[in-house]
From TrEMBL:
It comes from Stephanodiscus triporus. This is Uncharacterized protein. The keyword Aminoacyl-tRNA synthetase does not apply. SUPFAM superfamilies: L domain-like. Pfam families: LRR_1 (PF00560). Residues 206-233 form a coiled coil. Keywords: Coiled coil, Leucine-rich repeat, Repeat.
Amino acid sequence: MEEYDDLAAGPDKDGSLNLSHNTWKALPPELSDFSNRLLHLHMSNNQLTSIPESIGALIMLRTLDISLNRIENIDGQIGKCIRLRMLNVSKNRVGNLPVDIGNCILMEEFIASDNLLTSLPREMLRMFVISVIDVRNNKLHALPTELSRMPTITELLCDGNPLLGSVPENMRGDTNLVLACLDMQQKFKDVLNPLEAQHTELRARSDELRYDLTQASGRIQQLEKDVSTLKWERPDQYLQWKAQLQAHIRRVFDRMIQLLQIFKREFWKWWERRKTYPIY
């Protein structure tokens, strides 16, 4: 077949291999045979559904054009293509990018328009020479605000993302306005992040103090029980209670003496009456 003829021929003298406009459904395993001289791979307009881990074998790759396919997933091994300067994955079905893509630090152009992206990995901030980021017509909710601090960016295209809240819709067509919006948000973060960190620290300290207070309250209750139990062992308390007990016993004893005297007196009265009026 014609596509296999193109593959068999291998990269040209410039290191380019064009397998576009064919019916490839997966990356040909034979590509690894050219890993030391394949610099530019063009596989646009095929039927690819994913970029597998075998992409990591193409360590010399500088250009990768896989636009106009059906790709849903890009394996993290793409991060081993550290010489990659241009990645075109537009017009596919990619929903998430692997964080390892940030290892492609020499990336200059990242084109991912017309996909299903909801976010960009912050690891892309390591691409210190990036100049073009095209993420038009996706489902992005936000853009990394730190992009505004990357001086090499000349184009940041984000039109056609209805859920993008970080940039007003009427500003998304102007790279300078987009970067200005992101810069303003980043400045707010620069102010708020330390305050949020302090707030988090204070809350953690508050929780610690609340726990210590609970522990102290429990300890106080236990000490109160211990004090109540040990009161009898205190000499002053013991002597006080002993004096109170002795006074109580003395009162009881005096009352018993009084009752005995009354009984004795009443008994003799009765006895005298009995002697005077004997009962037969």
